Structure formats: structure tokens, C-alpha cells
Amino acid sequence: MSIKKYTIGTPFVTDATVKEVKAENSIREYISVKENTIELTFPLSPDDIIYGLGEQLGGINKRGRKYRSFCSDDPCHTEDKEALYGAHNFFVLSGKDNFGIFIDFPGEIHWDMGFSKEDEISIVITGTDADIYEISGESEMEIVKEFRDLIGKSYLPPMWAFGYQQSRWSYPNKEQIDRIVKGYEDADIPLDTVYLDIDYMDNFKDFTVNEEAFPDFKEYVATLKKKGIRLIPIIDAGVKCEDGYDVYDEGVENNHFCKDRNGDDFKAAVWPGICCFPDYLKPESRKWFGDKFLTLTEKGIEGFWIDMNEPALFFSMERFKKAVDYVKKYNGEDLNCWDFFSYRDQFSNLSNNNEDYKNMHHLDGKVSHYDVHNLYGYMMMRGVSESLPKDSLLFSRASYIGSHRYGGIWTGDNTSWWSHILLNLRMLPSLNMCGFIYTGADCGGFNGNASRELVIRWMQLSVFTPLFRNHSAIGTRDQEAFAFSDSDEFKRVIQVRYRLIPYLYDLAKKCCDNNELMFKPLGFEYKDKLSKECDDQLLLGEEIMIAPIYEQNKSGRTVYLPEEMTFYKLSGNKVTHKEKLSQGIHYVDVALDEVPLFVRKGKTVPLCAPAKNVDSLDKTVTEYLEG
Amino acid sequence: MSIKKYTIGTPFVTDATVKEVKAENSIREYISVKENTIELTFPLSPDDIIYGLGEQLGGINKRGRKYRSFCSDDPCHTEDKEALYGAHNFFVLSGKDNFGIFIDFPGEIHWDMGFSKEDEISIVITGTDADIYEISGESEMEIVKEFRDLIGKSYLPPMWAFGYQQSRWSYPNKEQIDRIVKGYEDADIPLDTVYLDIDYMDNFKDFTVNEEAFPDFKEYVATLKKKGIRLIPIIDAGVKCEDGYDVYDEGVENNHFCKDRNGDDFKAAVWPGICCFPDYLKPESRKWFGDKFLTLTEKGIEGFWIDMNEPALFFSMERFKKAVDYVKKYNGEDLNCWDFFSYRDQFSNLSNNNEDYKNMHHLDGKVSHYDVHNLYGYMMMRGVSESLPKDSLLFSRASYIGSHRYGGIWTGDNTSWWSHILLNLRMLPSLNMCGFIYTGADCGGFNGNASRELVIRWMQLSVFTPLFRNHSAIGTRDQEAFAFSDSDEFKRVIQVRYRLIPYLYDLAKKCCDNNELMFKPLGFEYKDKLSKECDDQLLLGEEIMIAPIYEQNKSGRTVYLPEEMTFYKLSGNKVTHKEKLSQGIHYVDVALDEVPLFVRKGKTVPLCAPAKNVDSLDKTVTEYLEG
Question: Residue A335 is nearest to which of B64, B320, B419, comparing CB atoms?
């Protein structure tokens, strides 16, 4: 077990790691330093498996695809996408050789993991300054633990954040939230939080609350709290440019905002319109912004989600005007289709464009944003975390390794697609490896319309993920647990979550304390071929194997047991099925109101009784599931 | 077994059916005629399965989703899309009740197949004139056969069209095609055709051949034919507006083009720029256009693919100018994000827009295109088919039930996604039910970059589909069978296809002659739950069950056998594995160079020896696979 560090050039200090590792005097043969890049090349043997890379598409085995480290606000998570919201530059190669690689570099990295050549990993770092860590160990788990020790202890939220949570873009006012709370009360379905998406604010201005929509916000927060329900507001990365808006005025006055190439405050538009962007890379600026959250904690708020911090940029006026000028030159002639595409793309290419990222500057103009892009969400979360009271809930959309110490992440704007249940499952172990323990996907899918069956099947996975939040986008079908027919079926699934909370919370805490994984690929513990290739089942802790149903119109699924296990189905407060199953492949039936799980031989899973929320949960064990 | 026909209003004559059925005197209770629509409502029992709907997303069971009949050029086939290129208004309900419904209506139809309400089918026909056929029968198969008898005998191409085919957008000149042919020759991989996508033409003008790219086209066609390779050119629906271009001039002169609302020729832009659109709904115009194909058959061409015939419309000048005027009004002020979205959408919403479809008119201005939209590709193929020599290859992108008598279809611009292998598989039985026997997907995926593993795994399905064509888009990675490392593995898979061709061709012919399905859901023959829910295996003819691998980084898969079968793996000219497997779930290993198939008990599959193309194929049986 060892960590070797190879420092090339003068890397930007990211604080991703917490342990001092002395750089080696020479670099390894797999690293080549080119004029503008650093490249890493590793051979791949036919049976080698690649684990890691955190929030990325693809299977649990990341082999055979290309990826890109560049925090991206891309709401369409199709199979071919190379980058999502996080940049998690750690992978484990498992096979003939076993080692881990962490590239501490805050800019763009291209990963070709056996795509262009089946027998080669080829990584291009778009810069000449980076720390590269090589971690060796006896097993995949040893490598991961060593890496996690290097990057420091993962964030754990308070236990109530393990309750069932309801969100939507948006519940814009008190009446809507009352309707949601009443919906859950009437259906007798547990609920711990309701989320406030962007519309609760006054014109999307951070730290404002629309007073018409929430006449006495502080009192309203207290009223809900009495019911055991916490309100969780969103805060976006950008600050609306509006004279007289205190956050903007202070930011300008105290030089807290990123600069453009001319040294003026950098401006681009997001939800509030034209915004400035706090320079979270400056300690005093991220503290200033973090302290602003106290205006909301003073009103009783105990948790936040922070968003748009890749940062997403819809457009800059500078580039929008160029697009308009381009269109204005149109002289009335008939167009060919390429000219047409070029007019069209003037506008469609404006968002999240590298030209804007290159014009944005940090540290009083000294550093181009493009070069440190992947730190922005991380440093925002760091500032917020350092200001918030201990035991606050905090999670972010954008992230880098290092941010796992300050909060959780959710996996962004997924879609109500069946394949996204599987994507959710496959991402969990990779995220855990990169330090993110408090994590989960938008259950039921954010974009698009969900069917009843999709939402309830998705819940059968989400009952196991630390963040269990139902969230959906504006204009889509209602997907709250009470919005469909026969809400009792939803209730019985969500109740299983509450029965598991003491177990899940203890497990998550252990994983944070001891650098363990909550979700492990089967291949981490079983070395047979089917386990190593298994892509739709996970080990949860030391006790459980999960195998949710992720296909439409199915009453069950096949599941592979690497050893004898006991198959349980839980529904509401009942165990509806218990069956010892032998090593091998089995077909199991799972009704919509059941949660399937497999307890490993000799292991025990404690259950408590369900409750209407975590505050009222009696953690006394009422039953054990024996393996 | 019976067919009942309910005629509402005065339906547009589509010629979808070939059998005279007398309309009933009264309509059924599930049909309601509203002011502007006709609506159909059916209850769904929990175990009911919905088959059919042809070229659509979703599972083999179409339940739990929404669909739209409206031929659509949409190149991004994500799970949520409601319409693709074809409009196939036939489904079979299987369960408590068993019946089939065919809606002969050429406009837009909305299908809610148990999505909004789990226990209800709700169909909205956007017009008040339609023929609705209700087909009853003892079994799903009986209903399908009855329906197929109603709509007439399916198209079957010549046997060489069952060979392996290579396409790309584009091989624009002789040199590129020579390179491809040589690539296959050098790798000793069989090949029957090479496709010409739009760039072979002179400025995308139908029936022209760029003379610089192909100095003596007729001779070149003959040269390739001597090698057993046929060139298959594309022809698009739109005709470039260019004075002096004979097709355009004739079309104008003889009133062959669709009109706009003012009675002028309707114009919109596609690849050639501004185009006119032959009115394929006029018999004389579709004959005129069909006869033009003879200018190419005279040069030795024996097959065509016809495209862009939904019709795709990139933009009309009228609406483009409106978008420009909108942008020109921009006054320099800072924008909010909604204003920005509205500028952006001015251009992104121009393509395939209903405003243009409503402005386009058929039959000398008498019929709005929007109302008969789904007939356009159908009537184009009909005209072409009626002009072409017998035994020509012909297939289309857009289609309606009825076009199955005139040619095949390919399933349009899919993507190099693993999930699209499964989509390809799931569509096959639905397409067969709607009459399309000669069909297949772009093997390896059209859009996006394919990995070696994806292409070869996809081929393991495509070896069974009548149309077996590797096709990919401009700007993507080369995906010819010789473009990857160790092309011998590709060769061994493609050779299996040639061994199967006599069997597959006979089967396809039988299916055309007897209104049978080439590909059947397991649930059509086996009535156990696992068969009825099986979504990733198919029955092929009476003899074979297929179960391809459709996931990355897998060395095999689980497969369900509804009864004892014999599992074979074929590779090149060899049977590499034969094993009797019992009823139940099995895991089977399949290497990249093997084709897995299961022969049903008591059945026999004949194989011949592989060949370099179909012309040189010796159809003598060399071996039987026994079940």
C-alpha cells in the first residue's frame, strides 16, 4: 500500500487532498509532458476493469468509452455524453495490474478508456501543471481506502436528511407547499422536507424571499418544522446585477466578483438575467458569500442545495450581440442549408461556451476561469459549508474531489427515462469511491413526464440512497408520491425507507469515518466472472445486495447471487417474503409496493418501525433480517 | 375471426387496405366523435399487453407510454420521443379481451396507452374522418394475419439485398468507394452493396451524378457489379429549385409540385437549399417522379433508398425571414433569460414546423399537407416502386401502412448507443405486424462514435435482420467492418449471415406470402409470464430464438428458455458450440466473433457455406442445426 506523487510544473493548489505527500524526484514512464498537455498512457489487458471517475455515464466498468472532466450543465444525459456536472479525476485499474490514479488538475481532462484502442487508456490533461497520484494496494478496496484517506473525510448530513424528500421546480409559494404537505398528510405518506426551487426568491436574487409568496417566511418555516418538515431552499452561484440589491452592491464594492479580460466585473446571464459571479476561489469572497446563508438559517432554515455552479452561463451580452450582428447582415437572399445552420447555431451555441469561460477570471484577474473551471462549484460549497452551522444539510450540483468534505451532491437534471434508474445505480459506487457518500439522483426523473410505474420502481432503488428526493421539472406531470392512483403502494415503499434509516445512517457514518464504500460493485468482493461483470446489482454495506427492477412492464427480474443469500421483500411495516436462495441466477417477482433486498449469509440487518418523519422515528430495532 | 369497419365522416382514401370491407351501420361504444376529433377509449386489465404500433420506441409491450402518429425526422431517439419516421396505426390488445385496431387516418394521432391512466387506452384522432377497423381472432397471431391480409402482401427484395451492406454519409466519390471495396477485399469480408448518400449528386439534385466524382458512372457501376457489388444511391423527396435543372423545370411546367396557400409552388429548404416537393399524392406526379429513377437503372443501378420523405423541412424562407425580423428588433438592452430563449428558439423551432406543413398543399391546393402528412413517404415509395423494374431493392425512411407493399423501411437516424441495439430488436416484431418485413436499423449506429465492441455486438443481432446495413454519419468514427483491429472477428460474424441467407430469404418470402411474422415476441407462442414479459429475445420463424448481447463489457448474458432448446454458437464457417439447454434461465457466454442462437425442439435450421457475396453463394445445405 503506497501513494506516489508526481508533480509536473507548478500545479494550482486545489486543496483536493489533505495529506502531505512528498513528490517523487522523477516521473513515471506512463506520463509524457508535451508542449501544452500532459498525457498518460496505460496498456489494458483483455480482462482489465476500470472503476471510478465519479459522476459519469457508462457502466460500473468505465472501460470502452470516452469521458471529459469539465463540470457541465447538460440536461440531456444520453449515453454518448462525456461530461456531467462533476469532475472526479480518480480511477482504479483492476486486473493484471492493480493501481489507482488521481489527477489533481482543475481544468479540462480527456479520458479515452479503451475506446479508440481497445487495449489502451489514453488521458490528455489540457495543461502542463498537475499533481498525479499513483496509489497501489492489494485490492481495489485497499486502493480506494488509501485514496479516500488522501482526500479527507466525507461529509455526512444530519439524520433527518435521510428522510424522504419532495421537490419540484417549483413550489413557488406558501399555498403550493401547503398543498404538497397536505397531500402527503392526507395520503399518510412520510415526508421530511420540501424543497424551494428558484421561484421562491424575489426575481431569482440569492438570499431574498418573495414576500408576496411567503408573507412571514420565518414563521412559516417554524410552522412546518412543528410538523417535522423542513424547507430546503436553493441558492444559485450567480448574483443578479441590480443596483440597490445588497448582495450585488457589496460584491462590487468589496471586489468579490470574477473579472473579465479587461478587469471589469465579468457578467453573464442565468435565471436572474445578467449576473456577476462571486470569486469563490478567493477565501474572503467565499466567506462573504457563505456568511450570507446565515440570513436564511436565522429564519430557521437548516439545509440548502446549491446549483448552477459549474457555473452554467446561458449567454453573455457580448456574444449575444455578436450573434444579433451576424443575423442583421442577412441580406434577404435565399439560403442554403449550411448558411441556415450557421444562423441557427449563432444562438444555440451561446450557452456554457468556452469563450465566456476564457473571458471570466479569478483572483483579481490573475487566473482564467477556463483553467480552473472544475473548482468553481467546489469552492462555492466550501465557503458555504465553512459558514453554516454544523449539522446543516448541504449539497451541490457541480463538484470536484475535495468538495466531498463539505457537502453532498445530487446527480443533476436527469430525465424520467427507465435507463436513468440504471444510470443512478451505476453511478453510486463510482461516486462513493471519489468521496461522495451523501448522494442520490432525482427520483422519478427531473425532465420529462413520468409514469406511475417508473416513479415507484425508481423509489425501490432510492430507498437505499442517502439522498432520497423526488424532483421534477416545470411543465412536467406531477410526480409526488400522492399524485398517482393508489398512493398506498407508494406509502408502503417509502415506509421501508424509514425502517432502514438507522441502519443506513450508521452505515453512511461508518463509511465517512473509515473511508469505506456504502455501495460497492459485486466485483470488489467476489472474483467470479459474473460478479465482475455485474452492472445492475450492488452491495450495500457488508450486509445487503440490492437488485432493483429498472424496466417497464415487468413483474420481476433475474438476479445473480454470487453466494447463498436470503431474499427479502419488504412492504410497509411488513416482511412479505423471505426465501433462502442458492448461489446462481434466479428470477424474482417484485410487486410495485415491495422493496427487494438480499441479505448476505451470516449478516443481519436491523429494522425499526416506520414513522411519519425522522424526528419522530423510534430507532428501536423491531425486527432483524437474517442472512 | 372477423373484421369490422367503422367509417366516420368521409375518410381520405389512403389505399392502406386492399380488401373491400363493408362499413357497419353503427359505430362501437368505444368510439366517440367530437367536434374536431374522434376519440377511442378502451379499458386495460392489469395483465393486458399491447403489441404493435410499428416503428415506435418503448418495449415490445407498448403499454405505459404515449405515442404520436406523425412521420418525424428526429435524429435523437431518446426514450421519451413519441414519434419517429413512420406512422403505423395498428395495435393488438392481448389479455382479457383480444382484438386488433387499425385506424386508417393519414393525419396526426395521439396514443395514450395506459400512461396517464394505468387502466385505460385513450386515442385521439385529430380529425373527424377516419376508417376504424376492429379485428377479432382467437390469438394474437390470428389477429395479425387477418390484419395483414387486409393490408396486402408485403414487399420482398431480391436475394442479394439480404447480403451484408455498407453505407456512410458519405462516400462522395469513386476513390472513396474503391477504398471501401478494397478494405473489404483485403480483409476478406463478404460485401454485397455500397451505398451512395447525398454527396454523390451534383449539388444534391435528384437523378444527377457528380461527374467529377464519378467520371463514367455507368461503367463504374458495371465494374463493381463484376465484383458482385451493387451501388445503391439515395434519392431525396425534395427537388432543388434551379432553373435549367430538368427535373425542376418539368415539375413546374407540368404542375407536379405541392402548392402553398396562395397556389404557388410550395418551397422549403432541405439539403439542396430551397426545394419544391413533388405531389406524390397525385398519381401522374408520382409516376413522373418514379419514372425518373429509370435514368439511374439505365446506368445499371438495381436498388435505391429514398429519404427525407416525412417530408423533413429544414426551414422555409418565409419563416426564416420572420425570425430575422424578430432578431432585428433587438434594441441593445440587457436581456433576461426568457427573452434570450425566445431569440434562440426563433431559429431552433424552424425545422419540421407545423406552420410549414399547414402551408403545404396537395392535389392542386385542395388538401392541406398537415391533414395527410403520413402519406407523403408512402406515396413517394409507391410511385417509385410502380416505375422500377421488378426485383429492385427499394426502401424508405418515412412510411405508413400500405407502403409495406411497395418497399422496405430502415429505422432512420439512430445513434451508436448500446440501448439502440435493444431498440432495434424490440421494433422488429412491431414492424412485422404492420407489414414491414424487409427492415433493419443502421447497424453500429448512425449518429455518434461507435466502439469496436458495440459494432460487433450489434452485428450479432443484425445477422438476422433482412436489411443488414452498417451506416454512420458524417464526422463520426469509421465503422466499416475492416476499420477496427482484428477484422477477422467481424468477418466471422458476417460470414454467419451468409450461411443463413437461404434460410432467412425463404423465411422472409413465406412471411410475405402467408402474412406471417419473421420476428415474433415470445408471448405469441408461449403463455407463461416470463415469455409474455420477455423484451430482449425474439422468435425468428418457427425454428429459432435469438438473444443477442446488448451491453458493454459483457462476455455473455442471461437468457430465458420457455422450453428446452439447443444453444448454438456459430463463428465463420464453424459451429463452435452446441448444447441442449433445459427450460428456464441460463447464463450463456458469447465471444465477440460468435453468433448465438437457439434452435427450438424438433426444428431444423439449414446452413450453407459462406461466400464473398450473394451472387456467388452456393445455396446447397452444408449442415443442419438440429433443435
Answer: B320
